[in-house]
Amino acid sequence: MVSNFSAVHPAAGEEQGQHEPRYVDFPIAPNDATWENGEPAMLYAAGVPNEEMMQRAPQVGVASVWWEGNPCNMHLLDLGKTVKEAIKKKGYIAWQYSTLGVSDGIAQGNEGMRFSLQSRELIADNIETITCAQAHDATVAIPGCDKNMPGCVMAVARHNRPSVIVYGGTVAGGYCEVLKKPIDIVTCYEAQGAYLFGTLGSWSDDKNVTPEEILSSIEKGAVPGPGACGGMYTANSLATIIETLGLSVTGSSSTPAASPTKMREAEKVADAIEVCLRRNIRPRDILTKESFENALVITMALGGSTNSVLHTLAMARAAEVPLDLEDFQRVSRKTPFIANLKPSGKYVIEDLFHIGGVPSVTKLLIAGGLLNGKTLTVTGKTLEENVADWPSLPPQQDIIRPLSNPIKAAGHLVVLHGNIAPGGAVAKITGKEGLRFEGEARCFNKESELVTELNAGNIPRDRNIVLVVRYEGPKGGPGMPEQLKASATLIGANLKNVALITDGRYSGASHGFIVGHIVPEAAVGGPIAAIKDGDVISIDAETCTISMNVGDEDIKGRLRQWKPPRPPVTRGTLAKYAKLVASASDGAVTDLF
């Protein structure tokens, strides 16, 4: 019978060390002779070499979120093979498999984006299913793109067997030959906006270069190879969160995909999974309220994506750790924003890697009393012990500011409430766009409607406008699509008199005066559905409010006249998702019953 000390889900809160420190043998299905006889036969055929390994060696699933059509994921099959071989050297049985992924960069601004967020649930379901159905003792999950990251964490938090997350790594910085300057994927979207508004030619000092040549050069140079989008966008935001939570080995989140260091990480991962198996350290031993508090701190300090809120809520729920929007607001108030990283800053994660990476930032934040260094990690050591010998940030650099001289004294993510969002909303306000905005509403029932108006040049520049994009929430989209095409076009068009609010969400690459995750969403009759063109909307990051100049009774009257739109889909995976998905303030999970 195969060794499997974790064939049943342990009780939530079970502490490490309650079981034997060595692998525990017991039958998976002791009363089923067919299963007991059939299982070894199947595993011998799959490559288990002998009876001793069959009886004693733990089975470790190696889940690569791999497919060829996305730079974030295209290298993860090979990385998974390297991890698998390192695990086999420990004398373990390692089984590699793939799960699905979605490229947000390819899906942006089209119908494919509706499938992105639900892929998080499918990834979690997939890994949980294979782990439990095939009786794996442990999991090593290898994500590379936005929804991959929380999907893998949700899976291991659910099955709660010893697990390590290996980040596929960030992409190298891009370069535009025509402009002779560093660029990245977001430059493409902003360049498209400038092109549509006739201003792209001004990006080059060479007046013989056409806008079309600039655009082509940007597209060819923005993504030079494998790895996730390079700024503090969603994938890198979640990678730093996962390392700070303690589920990755030290340095995983900031090591570039193409760096030899990333492949050498495989040996550390094998060591970590051995420690977790021998000491019976399970994900829920690591995923505690204290470690999630740390995750919120690193998010605020480094300028993480608004998607960090949505996904951290979902990961905490999978681990049965209480966490809500007010926790984000509380931590944001006390955490200085110190990172000069894109999208709001100058640098990419590869630059951070060269000055010490996330571990050096962690060391700074522990020394400053902002991070709890006593939390447990997959190395078997505490967060503080992991970074003790790591170099401190060099003084002569401008990527990470000193805690005494932050970019902003408090975090950039602000939780808003008001008569537009009684259930909450999330704003990404770094301070450079101001802290308050007021303007007249211009309403659109899909992002595509707004993009059409932007492309036609129909957004006025002579007064403040609040663009309202609705019916893009978890149920209404369905799938809560990102609004990057619209937000990047606004930046590219240099429309500084505009704010953008939505019940959808934003790419981690979005910046400007933007508010998303408005709850309740329009599709369920939230107040955002009652906004009319011309209503005055006020957004205030200091008072944490978002409201329209319409009285409560008038809003109720408008909503009594409101009729829900026909569901955009009635069959298939998105229809199932729309029926199950919870609100953004609950992490848009699908198991909130």
CATH topology of the largest domain: Rossmann fold
Helicity level: 25-40%
Kindly provide the radius of gyration, computed on alpha-carbon positions and rounded to a whole number of angstroms: 24 Å
Strand content: 5-15%
CATH superfamily label of the largest domain: Response regulator
Backbone shape: globular
Q: Give, in spatial order, the strands making up the sheet with the most strands.
A: 7-8-12-11-10-9-13-14
Q: Can you tell me the CATH class of the largest domain? A: Alpha Beta
Total beta-strand segments = 14
Q: What is the architecture of the largest domain at the second tier of CATH?
A: 3-Layer(aba) Sandwich
Structural class, from helix and strand content?
A: alpha/beta
Span of the ends, CA to CA: 36 Å
The overall pLDDT, averaged over residues, is 92
Largest sheet: 8 strands, mixed
Number of helices: 21
Please give the oligomerization state of what you see. Answer: single chain
